[in-house]
Every structure is written in structure tokens, then in C-alpha cells.
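Anyone up for a design puzzle?
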């Protein structure tokens, strides 16, 4: 007997809440056109667009597992692209480019560009709270969409979508970006502030998929970042704080 794929188990009949099913068909079709992939299994796209608040059971039927898959696919495709595009750069430079290109600010910006927020299914309460426009939710949904494309059609359509959606971002990256924590440290030192500090202010999510919220502090300034690892959350917090400090 073939093993059952837990990523797609709910498509065999496990229900989602009614709200999770109300993404209009024309909205889903328009999104398929935008991402350049027509789903043979539309249930995968519905899953990718289902926030955990709209799932029948927390973590089951939501886009969290597809997000896990999409994160890995995105990293592979971007890494391959960077090695191809910058043949003379070494691991450190490529790593800084990769970290930026898969960062939450970049992901949420691309998600906004393709209109992902309009297609998301969330609970009525979360909708009123504006959860559809949160950077973390948009970034997660984009990764889930990539995971859905990969499971539906394989690596080629996922790669095609990523290379199309990230084209402007990668071509605008002339030189490797500085590590956000390093740049924030330099900013603090130039102004005579103590070295930045990073404090875990919240830990949420199940043990297999934790989320860390970390507050970065530089002088009197603070910002928070959330990510599946402490290191990524620190980088996100540093990036958010730098954006605030360097804004015109």
C-alpha cells in the first residue's frame, strides 16, 4: 500500500471551516494567472491560502505545512540562481544575498504585489483585526503558495514563478547586502551607543514549528522580528529597526 502524504491528507475528506472555502473562484483563477501555474489539484491552492484561523483544527487544513515545504523550495531555487548569477562570489557574499532575498520584508512585498492578501481565507475575527495585511501572514502565505506549486507540478513551475516574482529584487541587488545585525552594530557604534541587544519577547507555535519574536534594541530605539529560528528573528528585528532608523 502506498504511503499517504500527510501534507495533502485533508484533501481526502478532512473538512475545513466554511469560511476557508469562500475564496471566490474568480479570485483563485486570477491568482493562478498571476503566478503562471494552473493547478491540477486546486485543493492545494486552497490550502495554501487558508490561514490557521480559518482551518477546522489548528494546524490541520491550514497553510502551515505547505509553508514549511515552500520555504525549502524557495531557498533551493534562490541559492541555485545566485550561484548561476554571481559565479565569482564566495559563500559569505552569496549567503548575505540569500538571507535578504528570502527575508520577511521581501516576501511580504512580493505577496502584496501579486495580490495574495485578497485571496487569503481567515476567520472573521482575524479579518476585522487586519491579519491579512500583516507581513508575517503574507510571507507565510507566499511560501505556502510556492509549496503548493511544487507539490502540484514539481520544481519547474515553482522555479518559473520564483524567478519571475523575484526578478526585480535580485537585479536591483548590485552588491551583497550587509548582514543586518552587523549594519545595526555599525550604526550604534558610530553614534556612541552600546552594542545592540536582542531579547526573546515571545515564543509561540508547536514544538515542530516554533515562532520566536525578538526585540532588537539600539540606543533608545527598538523593533521586533518574528521567525522560525532565533537567528532569523534577530535578523528580522535588526532589519526592521534599520529600516526605521534610516528612513528619510
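Challenge accepted. My sequence:
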Amino acid at each position: 500500500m502506498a504511503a499517504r502524504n500527510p501534507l495533502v491528507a485533508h484533501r481526502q475528506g478532512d473538512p475545513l471551516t466554511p469560511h476557508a472555502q469562500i475564496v471566490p473562484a474568480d479570485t483563485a483563477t486570477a491568482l493562478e494567472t498571476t503566478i503562471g501555474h494552473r493547478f491540477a489539484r486546486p485543493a492545494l491552492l486552497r490550502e495554501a491560502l487558508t490561514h490557521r484561523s480559518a482551518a477546522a483544527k489548528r494546524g490541520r487544513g491550514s497553510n502551515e505545512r505547505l509553508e514549511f515545504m515552500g520555504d525549502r523550495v524557495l531557498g533551493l531555487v534562490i541559492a541555485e540562481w545566485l550561484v548561476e548569477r554571481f559565479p565569482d562570489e564566495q559563500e559569505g557574499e552569496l549567503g548575505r544575498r540569500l538571507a535578504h532575498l528570502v527575508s520577511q520584508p521581501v516576501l511580504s512585498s512580493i505577496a502584496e504585489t501579486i495580490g495574495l492578501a485578497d485571496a487569503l481565507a481567515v476567520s472573521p475575527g482575524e479579518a476585522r483585526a487586519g491579519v491579512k495585511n500583516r507581513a508575517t501572514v503574507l510571507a507565510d502565505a507566499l511560501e505556502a503558495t510556492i509549496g503548493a506549486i511544487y507539490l502540484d507540478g514539481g520544481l519547474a513551475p515553482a522555479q518559473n514563478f520564483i524567478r519571475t516574482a523575484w526578478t526585480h529584487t535580485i537585479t536591483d541587488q548590485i552588491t551583497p547586502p550587509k548582514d543586518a545585525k552587523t549594519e545595526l552594530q555599525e550604526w550604534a557604534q558610530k553614534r556612541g551607543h552600546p552594542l545592540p541587544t536582542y531579547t526573546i519577547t515571545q515564543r509561540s507555535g508547536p514544538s515542530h514549528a516554533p515562532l520566536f519574536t525578538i526585540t532588537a534594541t539600539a540606543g533608545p530605539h527598538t523593533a521586533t522580528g518574528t521567525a522560525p529560528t532565533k537567528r532569523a528573528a534577530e535578523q528580522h528585528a535588526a532589519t526592521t529597526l534599520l529600516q526605521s532608523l534610516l528612513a528619510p
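A detail worth pointing out: The chain is about 55% helix and 10% strand.
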